[in-house]
Amino acid sequence: MEPFDLLITGGTIVTHEGVAKADIAISGETIGAIGAPGTLGAAKETLDATGLHIMPGAIDVHVHYRDPGMAHKEDWDTGTAAAAMGGVTTVFEMPNTFPPTATPAALADKFERAKTARVDFGLYGLLAEDNIDQLEGLIAGGAAAFKCFMGNTTGNLPSPSTGAMLEGFEIIARHGHRISLHAETASIMAWRQAKLMEAGKNAPLDHLAARPAIVAIEAVQRAASLAEWTGARVHVLHISSADELRPLREAQARGVDITGETCPCYLMLDTDDYARLGPVIKVNPPVREPHHKAGLWAAILDGTIGLVATDHAPHTPEEKRNPDIWEAGAGFPGVETLMPLMLNAVAEGCLSLEQLVRISAYNPARAFGLAPFKGRIAVGSHADLALFDLAAETTIDQAKLHSLRARITPFHGKRVKGVAMHTLSRGQFVMKNKTLVEASRGHGRSVHRLQSMPAPKPLRVEQSLSHLLGSSRADGTTLADRKA
Ligand code: NCD
Ligand code: ZN
Ligand code: ZN
Predict the structure, then answer these.
(1) Binning pLDDT at 50, 70 and 90, where does residue 480 land?
(2) Which residues, in sequence order, are CB contacts of 430 under 8 Å at separation 6+?
(3) What's the pTM?
(4) Do 34 and 62 lie in a common domain?
């Protein structure tokens, strides 16, 4: 038998189900064997992981890498370097670039730009008012998921009408791809922001005043109704408030395939941090009052929020520090600090290691069609592994971030317990001994070919626009054929 390519010995494996001391052998891109310490025989190369915890590489379904159009903030090389350094082995990248990823041509162009990716990636296609006729083409072109901006944010993409959303959901539901939602209702925010601006208000907390939790409650409720009606799978991005959990829970209880994510800033920051951080804390949706944090943590523990993601949103330090809050950049880089921050939360007793694997890898893989290749440590799965020293402590230093043009984070100076030591993507080191592996540039691959997203049982097909207008289904059959 061929010897294994790499043997990882002496470490402690963490999966969504448990923690155990075990060795891992890697053959090519996949895990070839898992066994009791010292039982797996020889390999071409050995990594001594004594004292380290080995987790499935994190899957961050929410990053913005800015190329094309805003590469002065970030690009694929720097953005995926940051991922590799943070133990993140798969990213899903957002379509609010210039031009947005709204057509098959724009998607093909983004695939070209992503050729420098160091870790695996999925590309989001946009669902907007004016590109409903492009959705099938985006799927054929390799979009891994869709993004719908229900509210304005970086890129100023207008929110589609509820009518366009409904038809978009109908079309995408036939293919099973998940639709991720920026769930803030545009008209409420625009109304409030205009009044606040008229009154001359432009302080960091005025941004929160323009976006109270009702904007998220209303959007989640509306999106859940459309998902329930069409059978579309949906995902609520960056859950910031305890209040939007009610419509989310109600929809989940009715059987709607609706998942939710939150981000470290909503779990770890609150209104008490605005004075200290100024416009650096600006993010859409905003960081809220302290009581929301407890509600979000409870929702992680009871499974309502199944995913943690970063909303990695790089802006230059100058863009972030604009004293006019309406002009300051919204969001901050996060993909490099996600796992250290979450492991620190484990050390503080907020959740268990297994729960962290569930929300950072196992659940994202299942929700976005990457299981069983990713999100688990199992024979045959991709050798996407993140090795951490849970006893080591470090201070987050924005000057050391690999998002080279966006070295600014509200977590600058925070002491965390849990340091990323090595990252492997499909069997290759992309970070080794806390150092980026330069040769990892270009190693990343699109995940869309792995996806198995069988369409859910179609609902209300008779009332869908394509049926009423007599257009055929994407699979070439008409509803009449299917009934026959
Ligand atoms: C994101 C960005 O800058 O692209 N900003 C943010 O404040 N979250 C956009 C978004 O996710 O809404
Ligand atoms: Zn958003
Ligand atoms: Zn985002």
Answers:
(1) very low
(2) 84, 89, 118, 119, 423, 424, 436, 437, 440, 443
(3) 0.96
(4) no
Asked if 88 and 185 sit in the same domain, the reply is yes
Host H or E run for residue 435 = strand 435-436
- Domain of 433 in residue numbering reads as 4-55+382-391+416-483
Residue 399 lies in a domain: no
Class of residue 96 by CB neighbours under 10 A (exposed 0-12, middle 13-18, buried 19+):
buried
Mean pLDDT of all residues belonging to the chain: 96
DSSP assignments along 171-226, one per residue: HHHTTT-EEEEE---HHHHHHHHHHHHHTT--SHHHHHHHS-THHHHHHHHHHHHH
CATH number at residue 13: 2.30.40.10
CA distance 174 to 233: 10
Q: Which of 60, 62, 72, 96 to mutate to test the pocket of ligand 1 (most atoms within 8 A of CB)?
A: 96
Q: Which atom of ligand 1 is nearest to the CA of 284?
A: 7
How many CB atoms sit inside 10 A of residue 314's CB? 33
The model's pLDDT over 392-445, given as tens digits with 9 standing for 90+, comes to: 999 999 999 999 999 999 999 999 999 999 999 999 999 999 999 999 999 999
Cis upstream peptide for 68 (omega within 30°): yes
- Closest ligand 1 atom, CA of 331? 7
Same structural domain for residues 325 and 266? yes
Ligand 3 geometric centre to CA of 182 (Å): 8
70 pocket-lining for ligand 1 (C-beta < 6 Å): no
